[in-house]
From TrEMBL:
InterPro entries: Gal_mutarotase_sf_dom, GH, Glyco_hydro_31_C, Glyco_hydro_31_N_dom, Glyco_hydro_31_TIM, Glyco_hydro_b. It is found in: Endoplasmic reticulum. Keywords: Endoplasmic reticulum, Glycoprotein, Glycosidase, Hydrolase, Signal. One of its GO terms (biological process) is carbohydrate metabolic process. GO terms for molecular function: alpha-1,4-glucosidase activity; carbohydrate binding. This is alpha-glucosidase. Residues 1-27 form the signal peptide. Residues 92-323 form the Glycoside hydrolase family 31 N-terminal domain. Its main location: endoplasmic reticulum.
């Protein structure tokens, strides 16, 4: 049992909290999770890599492409690869050359005659390699390049395709593929000949007295931590090495508590000795700086070198391990003096299915990845504001008290959360009859200030004949089955004995969706949104705290095949349920938080990094993790502010709020044993500093929302690492404790170290950087010591941007909907600036029919004018919305970095439509290294219209 599922009302809480003060922070129980050498297929594939390394040039892989079978039709190359062992195994190959320049390489295993293989016949497991991961992860972007051409010469087939005449050079014997862009190789598949498709085989009984080899020991059965996996199909892993020649940084493959630039994994100083593992699991008290698996998996990796980026997406839902090594050698490609990154991908089952994304830069890679797996959903505005959670708010009175206190202390918040204790005996969709007697009236109270409620709904369903949801699920056959395939699987989680809903079954999803209807989820209102936790799934008595791999899902797929998609299948179903509950045409954008995720989760959920600890190491760890999620297409991500386990010091809590104000998903949360720590409890000066941090988030909501819009249209990360903003500046490639916010030019480095009064920030160019709060100006590229006392968030505006804000403090974001804007112009060294603003109603889907405002602001030194211009391609579709918004105005313009000549200006000339008028301007001289500023008061221009302001 992982957690202590004691009730919030029990007394041991105090004792435990006291004990925790005496004990050092606890550490993950390594013995509960496999290392590579404890996982049969990982061990075998790593051993193969070792043999290859030892053999050097004489090593070759037994995979040969049969030239005669090659065919290119409508942008798809097909052929047969022969595995030249075991009498020859046929592996159908397909290389799809997509219009957007992506290449997809898929290798399957041909069906064979009975007798040639042994599948365990007492199992219902489907006897096919899992080929449905694409159904879950992909949305499109795979139209083929019909004009691709092919030429074969001396055992090498070259295919030319894509918008820029990309090339794939396929060597037949042994099989390998080089991808080239403008004559330069950027990715090589099977560069080191580590490719391995463990074919299905007969189980050969050893003669008496003969022991199985070490490899064979785990072919047909594997035991770990007292659990035995029956492996009905025997060994079936797929592995491939992928080299990025000349690319010395790789990023991505979340979720790991590691640095953004991935460390090497085959030992040596400062490196890991284990591969990065992707096997969604509830890792209790996870540690920082580790390649261990966590709750979610996105098998997408980006490689970066100066001025160039490429990506690979390894589409497997099975347990996967990835080794990363940097080297100056490559068997096939002559590299520059720069290191190349060699990776080795190992999955337990399924197809070998890999996408190669050509870039040529990070922005294109993200777009290509988004075209494949979908862009992040544009969230409702409230969901990017501040969320207040703890395990648990124990009663309706408690909730209403917290709600009042936030107001009393003038701290804005949008959402309060209910954890598992709010239910009637951990039966989801119910309320504790004693403590939450009138859930609707509680939601009404919250709605008065436009606030929302989030309630938890987990995938384990209490095994209790009187619980309608559980009974229906079992009766209808919608539960995951155990390895026999007939009986519903039973395991242990919060409610005790439980079953798990099988969202791989479309009929189960249809049923699950109905549970969110207001007449089914009694006590819910349109103001209630959902938190899906424990969906790895977490099973307290299961192997590695999850489900047995030989469990059976819909379609007779083994759990092994689909494991990493399980969480996503569940939160997708919840999202669908929430979307339709109001009826056709009345949909609101659902908010669902998920702990487990896969490629594609971004289309329907937000994620958080699970159970972190209230210590400085976990505060530091959060940004690299959120940055990794952002570049892997899932930017709506956060970490528990304050740390889940333990009690943060007031300093740590305060710093965590300052950092959290820069998490795309911003939620305070705490374990049931942790002391209450709502921000107003911290005492002064902490409360004021935390209030300022939360208010900063609220005032920048227009900028955050605009960044989310760009993510949802083009896949751009919301928190942008240096290598995205400055792809030629190698000095920034490993930085993961500072980042840019969207297209605002805001560079943040929230303090994540104890007792700081200063911090070193890196400015990547010679442009001017202004301190966001006091306008101190920095003019030189490089490292700078900047103030970082407790009340200070190191936050800078790069010269050349216009940042939209809303500065009136309100109780929730909903109450700010029609508030006026402030525009902050950070003038560049050359005297110009530009910015973007996206606005819509923040809750419905009307924006999809064009009901939004999209404006470009430009400030030009030449004519000293600020302009607002329309970016909406079909403005007529926004006419009605513009009408609603036309009286929303800009109430203040702050120009930072103006020359002394502005001192004499008293008025500016405003033009909007055919009218013009004057507005006041006030100049302030900056002293002590601070920039001069000028402020225009109430220019009365509309946010929905074209206008100009002349400062001349
Ligand atoms: C585990 C989650 O990670 C945590 O956030 C939550 O409070 C507990 N489950 C209880 O639901």
């Amino acid at each position: 049992m992982r957690y202590r599922p004691i009730s919030a009302r029990s007394t041991p809480v105090l004792i435990l909290s006291f004990l925790s003060l005496l004990q050092p922070a606890q550490l993950v129980k390594h013995e509960n999770f496999k290392t590579c050498s404890q996982s049969g297929f990982c061990k075998r594939n790593r051993a193969l890599a070792d043999r290859a390394q030892a053999a050097g040039a004489s090593w070759t892989a037994p995979y040969e492409l049969d030239e005669k079978t090659l065919q290119l039709k409508d942008g798809v190359l097909t052929g047969k690869i022969w595995k030249t062992e075991a009498g020859g195994i046929e592996l159908p190959l397909q290389i799809s050359l997509l219009e957007n320049g992506i290449a997809r390489v898929t290798i399957d295993e041909a069906q064979r005659k009975a007798g040639e293989i042994t599948f365990r016949h007492d199992s219902k497991a489907r006897k096919e390699r899992y080929n449905e991961a694409g159904k879950w992860a992909l949305v499109g972007g795979h139209k083929c390049q019909r004009t691709a051409t092919m030429e074969t010469k001396e055992g090498v087939t070259t295919v030319v395709y894509g918008p820029d005449n990309y090339e794939a050079r396929i060597t037949h014997k042994p099989f390998s593929v080089q991808f080239l862009r403008k004559g330069e190789v950027y990715v090589v598949l099977n560069d080191r000949n580590l490719m391995n498709v463990e074919h299905w085989r007969p189980k050969i009984e050893k003669p008496e007295g003969e022991e199985p080899t070490e490899d064979e020991e785990t072919y047909w059965e594997e035991t770990f931590g007292g659990n035995t996996d029956s492996k009905p199909r025997g060994p079936e892993s797929v592995a491939l090495d992928i080299t990025f020649p000349g690319y010395d940084h790789v990023y991505g493959i979340p979720e790991h508590a590691t640095s953004l630039s991935l460390k090497e994994t085959r030992g040596g100083e400062g490196h890991y000795s284990e591969p990065y593992r992707l096997y969604n699991a509830d890792v209790f008290e996870y540690e920082t700086d580790s390649p261990m698996t966590l709750y979610g998996s996105i098998p997408f990796m980006q490689a970066q070198k100066k001025g160039s980026a490429v990506g690979v997406f390894w589409l497997s839902a099975a347990e996967t391990w990835v080794d990363v090594v940097k080297t100056k050698q490559s068997p096939h490609v002559l590299t520059t003096e720069k290191a190349s990154t060699q990776t080795h991908w190992i999955s337990e089952s399924g197809l070998l299915d890999v996408f190669v994304l050509p870039g040529p830069d990070a922005i294109w890679v993200y777009r290509q990845y988004g075209e494949l797996t979908g862009f992040t959903a544009l969230p409702a505005m409230f969901s990017i504001a501040y969320h207040q959670c703890r395990w648990n708010y124990v009663s309706q009175d408690d909730v209403e008290d917290v709600d009042r206190k936030f107001d009393k202390f003038d701290i804005p918040y949008d959402v309060i959360w209910l954890d598992i204790e709010h239910t009637d005996g951990k039966k989801y969709f119910t309320w504790d009859p004693l403590t939450f007697k009138k859930p609707e009236s509680m939601q009404k109270t919250l709605a008065k200030r436009d606030r929302k409620l989030v309630a938890i709904v987990d995938p384990h369903i209490k095994n209790d004949g009187d619980y309608t949801v559980g009974k229906e699920m079992v009766d209808k056959g919608f539960g995951v089955k155990d390895k026999g395939g007939d009986k519903v699987y039973e395991g242990w989680c919060w409610p005790g004995s439980s079953h798990w809903v099988d969202c791989f079954n479309p009929a189960a999803v249809d049923w699950w969706k109905t549970l969110f209807k207001f007449d089914k989820y009694i006590g819910s209102t349109p103001n209630l949104w959902i938190w899906n936790d424990m969906n790895e799934p977490s099973v307290f008595n299961g192997p590695e705290t999850t489900m047995p791999k030989d469990n059976i899902h819909h379609g007779n797929w083994e759990h092994r095949d689909v494991h990493n998609i399980n969480g996503m299948s569940f939160h997708n179903a919840t999202y669908e349920g929430l979307k339709v509950r109001l009826g056709n045409g009345k949909e609101r954008r659902p908010f669902v938080l998920t702990r487990s995720f896969f490629a594609g989760s971004q289309r329907s959920a937000a994620m958080w990094t699970g159970d972190n600890q209230a210590d400085w190491a976990h505060l530091q760890q959060a940004f690299p993790m959120l940055l990794a999620n952002g570049i892997a297409g899932f930017p709506f991500a956060g970490a528990d502010v304050g740390g889940f386990f333990g009690n943060p010091s007031k300093e740590l809590l305060t710093r965590w709020y300052q950092a959290g104000a820069f998490y795309p998903f911003f939620r305070g949360h705490a374990h049931i044993d942790a002391k209450r720590r709502e921000p107003y409890l911290a005492g002064e000066p902490y409360v004021s500093i935390i209030r300022d941090a939360i208010r900063l988030r609220y005032s920048l909501l227009p900028a955050w929302y605009t960044a989310f819009q760009r993510a949802s249209w083009q896949g751009m990360p919301i928190l942008r690492p240096h290598f995205v903003a400055f792809p030629d500046d190698e000095a920034g490639f490993a930085i993961d404790d500072q980042f840019f916010l969207g297209d605002t030019g805001l560079l943040a480095k929230p303090v994540v170290k104890e007792s700081a009064t200063e911090t070193t920030i890196y400015f990547p160019d010679d442009e001017v950087y202004y301190d966001y709060f006091d306008f101190s100006a920095y003019h030189r590229k490089g490292h700078h010591e900047v103030p970082a006392t407790l009340e200070k968030i190191p936050l800078f505006m790069r010269g050349g941007y216009i940042i939209p804000r809303k500065d009136r403090p309100r109780r929730s974001s909903g109450l700010m909907k029609y508030d006026p804007y402030t525009l902050v112009i950070s003038v560049s060294s050359e005297g110009s600036a530009g910015g973007v603003l996206y606005v819509d109603d923040g809750e419905t889907y009307a924006h999809e029919s064009g009901a939004y405002i999209h404006r470009a602001f430009t400030f030009n030194h030449g004519d000293n004018a600020l302009r607002s211009a329309n970016l909406h391609p079909e403005p007529e579709k926004a006419a009605a919305y513009n009408k609603v918004m036309r009286s929303v105005r800009v109430e203040r313009i702050i120009v930072v970095g103006v020359g002394k000549e502005w001192a004499t200006r008293r008025e500016v000339e405003v033009k909007q439509g055919s009218k013009s008028w004057k507005a006041k301007i006030v100049y302030t001289e900056g002293r002590g290294g601070r920039a001069n500023t000028a402020m225009v008061r109430d220019p009365k221009v509309s946010i929905a219209k074209d206008w100009s302001i002349s400062f001349a």
